[in-house]
Amino acid sequence: MRTLLAAAAVLTLAVLPIAAPWLQFVLTLAIAKGFAALGVAVLLRAGLISIGHAMFFAASAYAVTFLARAGIHDLGLLLIFSVLAGALVGAVAGSFLVRYRAIFFAMLNLAVSMVFYALCAKLYGVTGGTDGMAVPVPTVFGLVLSEPAFKSVLFYLSLGLMVLVGVSVQRYLNSPLGHALAAVHTNEIRLEYLGVPVWAVLLIAYVVSAALAGLGGAIAGFAIGRVVPDFAFWTASGHLVLIAVLGGIGGVPGAFIGALFLELLHSAAVTVTDSWNLIVGMTLIIVIMFMPQGVYGLFARKEASNL
Amino acid sequence: MAFKDISIVVARYLSSLELAFRLDRGTPQANLRWAVDGLAGALALGVVAATPVAAQEKPGSLGLGLFTFTSGPAAAYGMPGKNAADLIIDEINAKGGIEGVPVSATYVDEAQGAQGVIAEYRRLAGDAKNQVMVAALSSANCLALAPLAEQLEVPTVGWNCDTHQLLIDGKSKYVFRPNGNTVPEFVAYAIYLLDRKPDVKTVAIINPDYAFGHDAAKIFTAALKALKPDVEIVAELYPKLGSPNYQTEISRLATARPDVVFSNLWGADLENFVRQAAPRGIFTSSQVILALGETVLQRVPLPDGVIVGVLGDGWWMSPDAKANPETVKFAEAYKARFGEYPVFPAIKMANALIYVKAAYKAAMQKNGGKWPTRAELADAMKGSKVATLTGTAQTRPDNDGLVDQIVGVTVKASAQPFPVIGDMVRYKGDSLMPQAGQDPLAWISTLKPEFARRLPKPGSYK
C-alpha cells in the first residue's frame, strides 16, 4: 500500500509538468530543496539541528559554475564533482562541528555558514558579488541540448535521483550506522562504552547530509541558471529546517513532501496577494499546531494503526 | 479570466488538504481519494494554465507582468515604481487601453528572491495573455530573468535593470532596456564633478555593499582616473545594505577629509546616512555627490550644493518635463494620489510603460492593424525611438537604451518646500555610451580630458 502510494505520487509529479509547463521549474526546485532538507533531517535523527546547511547547498552550486569555467561541461560530471565539493566542505566543517551538541551545534553551523555567505558576497572579483554567477547549460552525455530540453532532462533526472537517493538514504538510516544516530540522541555515553566511536558516526552523517544538501544545490543552480550568495544566507538554512520539520522527520519522503508542500503553497500565495508571507506563515502555524508529526505523519500514523 | 480560474483551482487543491485533516483517522481508501482529488485538482490547474489564447485577435485584456519590490527594505525604491505603474495604467485604461485593449497588470514581489521571481515569470509567461514583462528592479533578478526571456521568447522590458552586464553580449532578442546603464550614469557624475570642481585631489566613496555599489565605485573611479589621473581615492567604504548606523563610516570620512564624497546609497540607507552625516559636518567639509539623491529631496533636508542626479533623464521638474503637459499632469496626479511628487524610479516605470505602449502602436502599424504576437512586439521595440515623459528613449541595435543624463546640484526653490535641482546639465545619451560590443571599462579608460571639454557645461540646461 505504501509503495503504491509512493509510486502514485512520483507518477503524479512526472505528469504534472506536461499539463502545466511552468510547474516544472517549481517542482525541480522543490525536489532540490527536498534533498537539502533530507540532509538536515538525517542530522535531526541524532538530535542535532543545523541552521547552516544552506552553506553546502550554495557551495555545490558555486562549484558547478567554477567547474564549468574550468572546462567541464557534462551534466553527470558536474553533478558528481559538485556533490563531492559539497561533501568536502562538509568534511572540513564537520570535523570540528560534530564535537558540539544542542544549541552550540546549531549556532556554530549558523556562524560558519554566514562566514561562507559573507565570502560569496564580498569576493566580488571571484564570485561576482551579489549579482552572482551564471550557470551555463551543460551537455548531457555529449549531447548539446536547447535550454527547454535541458530543463526537462534536469527535472526527470532529479525525479529519478529522488527515488534512488531516497531509497539509499532509507537503507543508510536502517543500517547500524543509521541507528547509531538515534542512539547518540538518547545516550551518547552508552554508545562509547559499546565501542562505537560517536565522533565517526556523526562525521559520516554530517558528510552524508552535506552531500545531500550539495546535490540539492547543484540541481537548484542548474534550474535557476544563476547562483547568488543568497543561497547561503541563514534564512535559506532556516527554510531547510522548516521543510524538514514541516514534512516530518519520521521518514525519507517527509523532506520531499515538505518541500513540495511549501513550494506549491508559496506559488499559490504569491498569485493571490502581496502579503504572501502572511499566508505562508499562517499555514505553517496551522500545520505545526495540528500536525505535530508533519505532513508525512498523516501517512506514518495510518501505517501504525494498520499493524 | 484564466487567473481567477487558476486561483479557484489552487484553492480547491489546497482545500483537499483540509479534507485530509479529517481523513487521517479514516480508511486507506479515503486516503487514496485524497490523492486522486489532489491529482485531479493539479491536472485541472495545469490545463487551465496551459490553454493558449489566439494571439492574432484582439484579446479582451492585455496582461502585463510587472516585477518590483513591494515588500522589504527595497520597497522604498520599488513602491514608487508600483505607484507610477498603477497611475499610468489607470490613465491608459481611461483612454480605452492600448490600441483599444484594456491593460491589467500582475505585480510580482521581487522580495521573494531569484527563485520565486523565476517561478512567477514562468507562470505568467505560460499564459499567452501576458505578452510583455516589465522586469525588474534588482540587477541580480534582471540577470537571472534575461536568459529566461530569450528562452521563452517573451519581450521583457527592464524598467530599472541598470547593470552594464545585462546586454553586454549583444545577442539579446527579447530583453530591452529603455534606460541608460551604470556606465553613462556614473561617468556623468565624474564629468560634472570635474567641471564644477576642477582642482579635486582626494575622493572618498561610500556605497552599499553589493554589486550595484561596487560597480558604481569601479566606473566612477575609472572615469575620474581617466579624465584627471592625479585624483586619489582615499577611502572606499561599503556599509552593509540596510544598515541603520553609519557613525563608523562617517568617522572615517571625517578623518580622511576628502575633497569629495561620492555615494550611491539609496532608499532608507541614504536617508539614514544624510541624517547622520549632516550634523557631523560632512556636507560642509567635503563636496558630496549623492547619485540617487533626488529620491530623498522631498524627505530629508539636504543642504545646498550637493551634487545629485536621477540616473537618467527622469527628473519631473526638468525643463523638458515642464514643457510636456502629459508630464505635468502625471506629476500632479501622482502627488494627489500618493502624497508626494514622483521620484525618478516612478518616472522610470512610467517611461517603461509608455515604451511598451509605443511598441504596440508600432507593431500594429507594421502588420496592418492586427494584434501583434510576442515576436512582432519585440521586433517593434528593436531600434525604436520613443518620446517619454522626460525625453526620448532610443533603443540601439543591441537592445541597449540611449537616455540622456541629468545631473545638477541642490538649490532652494521658492515654489517648493524642499530643495530642487539647479545648475543642471543634460548629457546626450549616446555621448556617454561605449559602442555596442565594446568593453565598458576598457572604453572608460580611453577617455581623455578633451572628451569632457566637448560636452555641455553645468548650468547649460535651463
How would you describe this structure in keywords?
heterodimer, A: 307 residues, mainly alpha, two-stranded antiparallel ribbon, globular, B: 462 residues, Rossmann fold, 3 domains, five-stranded parallel β-sheet, 15% strand, transmembrane helix (chain A), branched-chain amino acid transmembrane transporter activity (chain A), membrane (chain A), LivM-like (chain A)
**Content of β-strand of chain B:** 5-15%
Q: How many DSSP-defined strands of chain B?
A: 15
**What is the terminal separation of chain B in angstroms?**
49 Å
Average pLDDT rating of chain B = 84
CATH class placement of the largest domain in chain B:
Alpha Beta
Q: Give the oligomeric state of the chains in this entry, treating copies of one chain as homo and distinct chains as hetero.
A: heterodimer
Described by the principal axes of the CA atoms, the overall outline of chain B is globular
Describe the largest sheet of chain A: 2 strands, antiparallel
Main location (chain A): membrane
Protein name (chain A): Branched-chain amino acid ABC transporter permease
Membrane topology (chain A): Multi-pass membrane protein
Transmembrane segments (chain A): 42-68, 75-97, 103-124, 153-173, 193-224, 231-256, 276-299
